[in-house]
Amino acid sequence: MAAAGGGGGGRACFVLGASGETGQALLRELLARQLFARVTLVGRRRLSVGEETGAAVEQVVVDFERLSEHAAAFQGHDVGFCCLGTTRAKAGAAGFVRVDRDYVAQSAELARAGGCKHFVLQSSQGANQHSLFLYLRVKGEVENLVQAVGFDRCTILRPAVLLCKRQESRPAEWMAQQFLGVVARVFPTAYSVPVETVARAMVASVLQPGVGKVEVLENEAIHELGKAVPQQGM
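The structure corresponding to this sequence follows.
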């Protein structure tokens, strides 16, 4: 797929999960690159978005429990980015499955029906529908469901542990990140990845030609692709 020039060339994209750490990094990247003339944020609530230039940012508030009633939110976009997700600790097992699998799959179906050609999904390292672990099993299941929708192109990213500064307090995760931050100096692509790198890789996947209809990027490939797009200000 050819890259859009400055100002977006009339192309449009939507972002699911823009309130999360990766989603916030992705939004910053999209606005800085001015790859799309229109960026639509689809979510439960409106977000505080700073002053932007070069792209019209629209926000559509939807009820994910009645997503079929919000088909219009997904119409008219060339590319869809999905960073939607929660945790079992925050939403419970059933809630986690509903958000990370059902909401994502339903959104993908509406996006495809609305004309979306390229769907970019943030999944997880180790995703496997046959896993004994709920998190990895659900991630594997949603990957399969999204692929089955039949986009012209589907890119799935499987990052390892995400390194970020979360707004919400997760002490155990903070401690793990401190440890992995040290490990990353020795094994930079093995066990972790900064959310900014994931965001840049998601953008780069749109800028570069696809390798087949479905492309799965493991953690090392995310690091490499994240380097393919120069950092902001460079």
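The beta strands are 12-16, 38-43, 56-61, 79-82, 118-122, 153-157, 161-163, 192-194, 214-217.
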